[in-house]
Amino acid sequence: MTEDAMTFTNKDVVIIGGGVGGISSAVELDKLGIECLILEKTDTLGGHAASLCCKATETCQRCGACLVEDLIHRAGNAAHISTMLNTVVSNAQKTANGWRLDLVANGSEKAVPVDASAVVLATGFSPFDPALKPQFGYGRVPGVSTALELEYRIRADDWDTDVKKLAFIQCVGSRDHRVGNNYCSRVCCAYALRLGRLLKNRFPELDIALFYMDVQSFDRNFDTRLKAAQEDMRMVRAIPSQIRESRNGKPEIIYHGPSDERVVEEFDSVALSVGMTPGQSPRAMGELFGITAGRDGFAAHESSNQGLFLAGTVGGPLSIPESISSGVFAASQVASYVRKTRSGEMA
């Protein structure tokens, strides 16, 4: 249920962020009869995950993309969930009974106050900007995109059938001290391998290479999935030093081979597997709510006795199923806190 900000005076819980973590929290709280309001700064729920494609081949690859649509549907039909889109928090103040938030809708200069017993921060992540790695040619070399953009095209059934040779470049913006991101984003290996298998299943003649440092385990059947992926694509243990435009106007990858020889190889398309970054939201939320950030920039601290909780990737890189679990866990913490405040135990 989407609402007008002017109709609100108070809610049990305000959830800031309408991605997977935030919606999961709301759906779980709805089951418990706890009134909650989801605030989303864009015009749709689901966050980045809502734009991802299903990667099933002959069997499900357990990517979690199908779970997002179900969550959005459940939130839209829930009795105790309200939603405000295109809305941000401009100010937050701790009160004796919880929090008072000032909400501002896009295009409005007027802030509308809302009182809540508890707040869930679920502001998500930002994809790494590949322009910060200019050697990979993003925005300059034809045929170079991010793996997320590749997903969007597949979901929109906009795959270029003229592409006969595709490369994935791993760890773009992750495990890289030169851009200040020393952490592993944890999901990039999984989505590249699943995308590669999906495309190979649909286009058997497609030649796929995956350039990597090492492959991170991502589920219980990792060894089986990795073996299947190795049969579908060429695994190149090297990170390219440069991607430039070839004489044919295509991406040309320069890398060092197994004997440290210089290799130059042309592809039709290159997908950069960009990692997760905290973006601006954690810093902004930190200023509003006093949340501290860890060395990786993601939110590192929550103060449950103040009615403030974290859900989803605001706290660090997570897969879709992990974000759902995080949201459910946050909801259990919130429910316990709200019950105590209702009974006066927090006084």
Automatic annotation (TrEMBL):
Task: Please tell me whether the keyword Ligase is annotated for this protein.
Answer: no
> Per the database record, which ranges form the FAD/NAD(P)-binding domain?
11-312
An MF annotation (GO) of this entry: oxidoreductase activity
Q: Per its UniProt record, what Gene3D superfamilies does this chain match? A: FAD/NAD(P)-binding domain
Q: Does the keyword Oxidoreductase apply?
A: yes
Which InterPro entries does the entry link to?
Answer: FAD/NAD-bd_sf, FAD/NAD-binding_dom, Metab_Enz_Cyan_OpOx_G3PDH
SUPFAM superfamilies xrefs: FAD/NAD(P)-binding domain
- Give the UniProt keywords, A-Z: Oxidoreductase
Pfam hit, one: Pyr_redox_2
Protein name, UniProt field = Pyridine nucleotide-disulfide oxidoreductase
